[in-house]
Amino acid sequence: VQLQASGGGLVQAGGALRLSCAASGRSISSYAMGWFRQAPGKEREFVIADAWGGGKTYPADSVKGRFTISRDNAKNTVYLQMNSLKPEDTAVYHCAAGNSVHRLRGGSAASWGQGTLVTVSS
Length: 122
Hints:
The chain is mostly beta strands and 122 residues long. It is built from one helix and eleven strands.
């Protein structure tokens, strides 16, 4: 599966942004889908994922209550809704497809999308 993320940009602290991850080549219904981010000078960090059937989501503690993941299987697209953004959310965000949420959380993905930059100003 090939993944293409989009929707990044500049937003003020407290604002919201929605990222999209369009998939091609295979249906996302076959995968657990997740989002990761990498801030300048830092390692890649798991953000949130959902299981291959959708439903329950697994956010990192740093984004719990602010970020949600959703998917539209008909459009073969995954979304990341980011609310109450903070300057520390500034990073390049990547989407990923994996065999399980557990493996995604461990950083193992079947496919990675290119990143989209999110900048949160204070």
